[in-house]
Amino acid sequence: MTGSTSFCHTNSLTEVAALERPTEEHYWGHWMADVEGAVLDIIAEKAKSDRSSLTPQTELTTLTLDSLDIVEIIFQIEERFDISIPYNANESVDAAGAGFKTVGDVVALVHQHIGQGQQPA
Amino acid sequence: MTSVVVTGMGCISAIGRNTAQMAAALRAGQCGIGPLTVTPTDRLMVKIGAEVAGFDPLEHFDEKRLLLLDRFSQFALVAAREAVAASGLDFRGPVGERAAAILGSGVGGMTTLDESFQRLYLENAKRFQPFIIPKLMISAAISHITMEHGMRGPAFTTASACASANHAIGTAFHMVRAGMVDVALTGGAESVFTPGTLKAWEAMRILAPDTCRPFAKGRKGLVLGEGAAILILESRAHAQARGAPILGEIVGFGMSADAGDIVLPSLDGAVRAMRACIKDSGLAPETFEYVNAHGTGTAMNDVTETRAIHEVFGDHARRLAVSSTKSMHGHALGAAGAIEAVATLLAMRDGFIPPTVNYNEADPQCDLDYVPNIAREQAFDVALSSSFAFGGLNAVLALRR
């Protein structure tokens, strides 16, 4: 499973770099949509779900995802966007503690961390 | 059936360089978890561990010998020296041919492997120091112990991740009980504080960033530890004939495989291993007073283990004292079962129950007596010590005063 996804670093970084230069409002719209699209792709693939059946309101617990899948999804998102999400699997038992419950929560989390990454050091 | 007694113990962990220090630390509820110092942490998210801080190998070994000794072998040899000295045995004599040497380790020489690969890949090293292979092999530690002490009987290493040491001790116990050998040196050794190993652990997302709080609400996972513990097992007749000190007895060993998930614990597997152990001991479940739990501090393990203890012991579960000494010495993986067996025997000898430290708030799903934070002055005679490993390989020991 990981073999197909672990080493796509170069592509993803290039793509993100291209996405990180929105100058006008409609670019922002594009960029937001692309983040959501990429997250949905990753989740749909792991859940073996039809991509079009996923909405931001879809709860992760309604998908056929086990704890290994969640960890893999976070890993793939981190690789895709070159971000670090401080997710601890011990908190997945308590969805509130994990910080995300729905597909939309995951997208929001990614936006939050990409945003942090853009802050000057 | 042959009674199998313990006539020597040695231990090195985050809470003591020897068994005397460890007994004092267990009684004091001393937590050995702190910032990692033995490895760079700048690229790690989790920067804590239960390390044998300040360990200087040159206090124990000369430079030439250290070329062959990974950190896990160094720990094994230090613990073995203490245990052999305590037993009063000299394996260079005839007893050395009737002595088994069986050690558990999860991964063996990771420090050596990681350092070597860094040299190869980062520094473009053209060649390696000649003895990397015999230094990193998972059986290196027990080989060095047999060489240092002249042990010439059956010798090997067991590997079952976090249950490695319990599988080693249980196998040694059964070999002595069966009369295959008169004496066995056994236990476990582990050292995984290398950048590569820690990144891999971190990726699993089960390491606690703060501390290890087994069975407590708000626990955030396990904290890795390192070290070694060694026990000398002996048939009671052999021990008595030479007037050896008897520090306790191994009375039962039970094993099972979950045949389930590679990382998630199984209620059924844990229950079957504990039941097999109790059956092997021939003791009634009601005679057990203390359980040294696997108690890793992960969300899943602690709930599953609590349910398993309820299922095995029924109403008696409420009368058991259950603690996880991992809250003090961390999760020493392939050495864990040995460190915990030694901890249990030391506490049994000294008449106290080791606490579960860092226990700040009760979890409704974990409803046993976990001896929170403060050791309990209470004598006990019979205990279980459990290890439930990744990969679903379980091994449980029964110990008696």
Structure report:
The complex is a heterodimer of chains A (121) and B (401). Chain A has five helices and no strands. The longest helix of chain A has 23 residues, at 25-47. Chain A is globular, with a radius of gyration of 14 Å. Chain A has helices at residues 9-19, 25-47, 67-81, 95-98, 103-118. Chain B has 401 residues and is an alpha/beta fold. The radius of gyration of chain B is 20 Å and the shape is globular. The model of chain B has no long low-confidence stretch (mean pLDDT 97). Chain B has helices spanning 19-28, 63-66, 71-87, 110-121, 132-136, 140-149, 164-177, 195-203, 236-241, 267-281, 299-313, 326-329, 336-350, and strands at 4-12, 34-35, 48-49, 99-104, 155-158, 183-190, 227-235, 248-257, 290-292, 321-323, 352-353, 376-377, 382-388, 393-400. Chains A and B meet through helix 3 of A and loops of B.
Summarize the structure.
The complex is a heterodimer of chains A (121) and B (401). By secondary structure, chain A is an all-alpha fold. In chain A, 57% of the residues lie in helices and 0% in strands.
Structural class of chain A: mainly alpha
- Greatest chain-chain interface? A-B, 15 and 16 residues
Helical residues, percent of chain B? 25-40%
Rg over alpha carbons of chain A: 14 Å
Shape of chain B: globular
Strand content of chain B: 15-25%
How many structural domains of chain B? 2
Order of helices and strands of chain A: HHHHH
Number of strands of chain A: 0
Give the helix level of chain A as a range of percent.
55-70%
Topology of this protein?
The complex is a heterodimer of chains A (121) and B (401).
Chain A: H1 9-19, H2 25-47, H3 67-81, H4 95-98, H5 103-118
Helix pairs in contact in A: 2-3, 2-5
Chain B: E1 4-12, H1 19-28, E2 34-35, E3 48-49, H2 63-66, H3 71-87, E4 99-104, H4 110-121, H5 132-136, H6 140-149, E5 155-158, H7 164-177, E6 183-190, H8 195-203, E7 227-235, H9 236-241, E8 248-257, H10 267-281, E9 290-292, H11 299-313, E10 321-323, H12 326-329, H13 336-350, E11 352-353, E12 376-377, E13 382-388, E14 393-400
Parallel strand pairs in B: 4-5, 4-6, 9-10, 9-13
Antiparallel strand pairs in B: 1-7, 1-8, 2-3, 6-7, 8-14, 11-12, 13-14
